[in-house]
Amino acid sequence: MGTGLLLRAGFQNEANHRTSSCNPRQVGQNRGLRVRATKGHKMQVSEIRLDVRSMPPAERHQQIFSLFEGLTMEQALLVISDHEPRPLHAQFEQRFPGGFSWQQRCLSEIHWEVAIRRIASVRGDANLRTVIQRSMVFSHFSSYALDEIVPRARTTLVKRHSIVVDQGINWPYLGVVETGLVQAILATSAGRDQLVYDVLPGEVLGETSFIDGGTIPLRYLALLPETRIILIPSDVVYTIMHHDTILFQKLSRISAQRLRATIEQFGAVLSLSVISRLARALLAYAPPGSELLTAFSPLRHMTQVELALLAGSVKEVVSRAIAALEDAGALERERGRIVRLNRARLTTIALGQRCTEPNVTKVANK
């Protein structure tokens, strides 16, 4: 079953990694903000909370960067925002590549939280232990717990547009995205597929099977070249879960968050026009501001077929929606690809508010 499963899932170039030592450090001093200590599997983390919802948007990210740069390895920065912090994540990837762990959750449409921690850089020839610790799922693990995982884990390289694992499979792994981006897609027999959520570097995939014992409910597809996935055998995960309730709680929370994302996604399909859904999806790649700014990666590499997945529509309709958004000054294209976005205008259209541009109104009514 192993070989056939790997071929169907699109795995390539699997490589084993050697174990290396890692000793937890003691908790450092807090920075005078709201701090609390949390215990987990022989490690402690002090948490600094920053609520940016009352701050001017132009000042938020710089304040977050300043606090992050002052963190010790034993501190976490919890940022509370009024929108999904994907633009912030893109800027972290640019400023601190491979040097942070990221775990976000949505409590309501206007209440998002993300926990960010400093880690040793995982770029280049990083060892597998360091990469696994980048995931918030395993960030509380002691050296002993990592010794249980690392010898059995391995990495695989998945080409762009290749399937990581297909819908309906009994997958014997928990996956961790090391680099690249993975899309979770609901595949239908009619060919009308729907993007449900993205899996970012450091996040896991296949967690639902560890909660209910079922098959993989969605198709996971590599969006970027050089997407690397860490495969942790399910028997190792189950063994650790038996004596580590924190791991079970983290996987349960991720599963619940993705259920929430699924409900919101299909609520948008039922209630919003195609142009509003597309504008809503593009916000994840739009820098803060009220003018046209360079869009975050990987938007400029995405095809109209991939954008149709974002909007829950078909290529022909999304093509008209893109043209209408460009006429409204919400985006700009070069050689047919979206390269710049206006976050303020996208927000207005995403909320379903009326636009005066005739093309926008025409597509919105479809």
Instruction: Give the H and E element order.
Output: HEEEHEHEEHHEEEEEEHEEHHHEHHEEHH
How many alpha or pi helices? 13
Global morphology: globular
CATH level-1 class of the largest domain: Mainly Beta
The largest β sheet comes out as:
5 strands, antiparallel
Query: What is the CATH-assigned architecture of the largest domain?
Result: Sandwich
Q: Write the CATH fold name of the largest domain.
A: Jelly Rolls
% residues in beta strands: 25-35%
The named CATH superfamily of the largest domain = Jelly Rolls
Secondary structure: helix percent: 25-40%
Q: Kindly give the count of domains.
A: 3
Instruction: Enumerate the spans where pLDDT stays under 50 for 5 or more consecutive residues.
Output: 1-42, 354-366
Q: State the separation between the terminal residues, measured CA to CA.
A: 46 Å
- Strand arrangement within the widest β-sheet reads 1-7-14-9-12
User: How many individual β-strands?
Assistant: 17
Mean pLDDT equals 81
Broad structural category: alpha+beta
Taking Cα atoms only, what radius of gyration do you get, to the nearest Å? 21 Å
Question: What's the assembly state of these chains?
Answer: single chain
